[in-house]
Design a protein that fits this description.
The protein is mostly helical. It has 10 helices and 2 strands; from the N terminus they run ααααββαααααα.
Length: 259
């Protein structure tokens, strides 16, 4: 599976990403959303890309998910109640108001499946496509080369920012600062400026150096871009389109007619 994805034309993967992303938002029932998520987890495991940083992902999104859950249970439409009324009648003036609904829980689970699916799709695409292939594919699809270069540079900076953040935290540990490992949630929030400020300044400095290097090489001096390699659609690319369309059709039928 990994070899097949690596050999696909980058234009194929670039076109399939929006289609699959749109599919995740069109599906609006929990069984279909969960099935689609399971399908992409299976795909990611088969391309030998481990589900890294799962714990970090859960920690970062837990507060957001909890907030969404509370809002949906309070305000989502529905008549299946967990608690109704939320405020007992015995409380003057406000008693008998509010309710917590099961429908809000279902909507929250659907949102979680959608977000998780999107977080799986993009790493699979990036891990199986070289940066210059992405730039070439975007350019061949009609994007301006400068725009394509900016997009791929943004993706390339994300791992670098993570490495810089790890370096800053290691430097703080050498100075006896271990808040990010042993501190409470409030202490970590208070300490984040000490991590964010040098990280942002370092990113700005690298961007300035990159701009200087690009100017020195006359980046963008020519409107037309020449390529060492040429892209050519193969049978596997057309098969990928057929499989994607088939899966999308099956998922839509399952979502709207079978559940």
């Amino acid at each position: 599976m990994n070899d097949i994805l690596n050999k696909l034309d980058p234009r194929t993967k670039i076109l399939l990403i929006p289609v699959l992303s749109l599919l995740t938002f069109v599906i609006n029932k929990l069984p279909a959303a969960a099935l689609l998520l399971a399908l992409f987890i299976f795909l990611r495991l088969n391309v030998k890309i481990p589900l890294q940083n799962v714990k970090l992902y859960i920690k970062l999104t837990f507060v957001i998910i909890l907030f969404i859950l509370i809002l949906q249970m309070l305000f989502a439409p529905g008549e299946r109640y967990i608690l109704n009324p939320l405020i007992p009648h015995s409380i003057p003036y406000i008693g008998g108001n509010g309710s917590l609904k099961w429908d809000g829980v279902i909507i929250t689970l659907i949102i979680i499946c959608r977000l998780s699916t999107l977080f799986i799709i993009l790493p699979v695409f990036i891990a199986t496509t070289k940066p210059y292939e992405i730039v070439m594919g975007l350019t061949k699809l009609g994007f301006n080369y400068r725009t394509s270069y900016i997009i791929i540079t943004t993706f390339n900076l994300i791992p670098q920012l993570k490495e810089d953040a790890r370096t800053i935290m290691d430097a703080q540990k050498l100075r006896g600062v271990r808040i990010f490992e042993e501190g409470s949630f409030i202490e970590k929030i208070k300490a984040y400026p000490s991590l964010a400020v040098p990280l942002v300044l370092g990113a700005m400095r690298k961007a300035q150096h990159m701009g200087t290097a690009m100017d020195a090489r006359a980046f963008g001096a020519y409107k037309e871009r020449t390529w060492l390699l040429e892209l050519k659609m193969k049978t596997s690319d057309y098969m990928a389109f057929i499989i994607c369309i088939s899966i999308s059709a099956i998922m839509l039928v399952f979502n709207f007619f079978l559940v």
